[in-house]
Amino acid sequence: MKITITKNGPYVVDGGIPLKEVDSIPDDQEKGVIAYKESKDHGVTEARACLCRCGHSNNKPFCDGHHTLIGFDGTETNDRADYDEKAELMHGAIYDALDKEELCAVGRFCDVGINFWNALEREDEANQAYTKHVGCNCPSGRLTLLNKETGEKLEPKLEKEIYLIKDVPEKHLGPIHLRGGIQVIGTDGFEYEERNRVTLCRCGESNNLPFCDATHLRCKHMEID
Q1: Which long-range contacts does 63-69 make (Cβ < 8 Å, 24+ apart)?
Q2: Are residues 213 and 206 in contact, defined by beta-carbon separation less than 8 angstroms?
Q3: Phi, psi of 221 (to 5 degrees)
Q4: Residue 30, Cβ neighbours under 10 Å: how many?
Q5: pLDDT (tens digit, 0 to 9) for every residue of the chain, 225 residues total?
Q6: What are the phi and psi torsion angles at 38 (to 5°)?
Q7: Closest alpha carbon to 217 in 183, 177, 181, 166
Q8: At 159, which helix (H) or strand (E)?
Q9: E strand or H helix at 163, and its extent?
Q10: In the chain, at which end, N or C, are there fewer CB atoms within 10 A of the end residue's CB?
């Protein structure tokens, strides 16, 4: 199972990966997001499926060739450093955590209640449960929890799936959320670090291609009703 980035074109999905559209569910104050709800199941992708990367397809999430009409420049701009090389270590009351801010896709799981960073420092059960929830559900994998004693990463067991996020509270289509460790291959054959949680840009305008940097929230062509 892999995703290959084509030059100035779509993502090519190989290996028959389940593809689902999911909606962001906000918290009571609509300040953060608490979960995703499946809204459409596209089933298992065909042996070879092309997902829109420029954001302008009239057949989203699939490519319809619009990248050629708009002169899409999909040059990869990510520095290709592994997560551990640049992630900041944070010490907490029960868990430690790693934070690689440049991967942020503004999923907003971290914005619920007193927010992830404040909750990390609290010892009470409620805040630690929230800390664990965020550390295991941050879609981009920006945040990762660590066992405080061993330093082991605490990752949930995820099936290999592709979530197409619809940010309902913000009324925009969000990124392509890869789950369960799906290999991403660059246009030059470079194999990006395979991680349990990753978000790929699908608006075409991220400054950290191929990864999402939340630019979709400012894109007219990603707006939804």
Answers
A1: 63/9, 63/10, 67/8, 67/9, 67/10, 67/204, 68/9
A2: yes
A3: -75, -5
A4: 10
A5: 899 999 999 999 998 899 999 999 999 888 899 999 999 999 998 778 999 999 999 999 999 999 999 999 999 999 999 999 999 999 999 999 999 999 999 999 999 999 999 999 999 999 999 999 999 999 999 999 999 999 999 999 999 999 999 999 999 999 999 999 999 999 999 999 999 999 999 999 999 999 999 999 999 999 998
A6: -65, 130
A7: 166
A8: none
A9: strand 161-167
A10: C
Residue 88, both tokens? 């900041």
| Token pair belonging to 25 | 């569910």
Contact between 56 and 83 under an 8 Å Cβ cutoff? The reply is no
- For tokens 């999909």, the residue is 74
Read off the pTM: 0.96
| Phi then psi dihedrals of residue 86, to 5 deg | -125, -5
Q: DSSP secondary-structure letter at 187?
A: T
Q: Which of 203, 193, 200 is nearest to 223 (CA)?
A: 203
Residues making up the chain, counted from first to last = 225
Alpha-carbon span 72 to 202, nearest angstrom? 12
The position carrying tokens 């404040």 is 118
Distance in angstroms (rounded) separating the CA atoms of residues 22 and 137: 14
Amino acid type, 102: E
Do 24 and 33 meet the contact criterion of CB atoms below 8 Å apart?
Answer: yes
The full set of domains in the chain, from first to last, is 2-23+38-79+160-222 (3.40.5.90), 83-154 (no CATH)
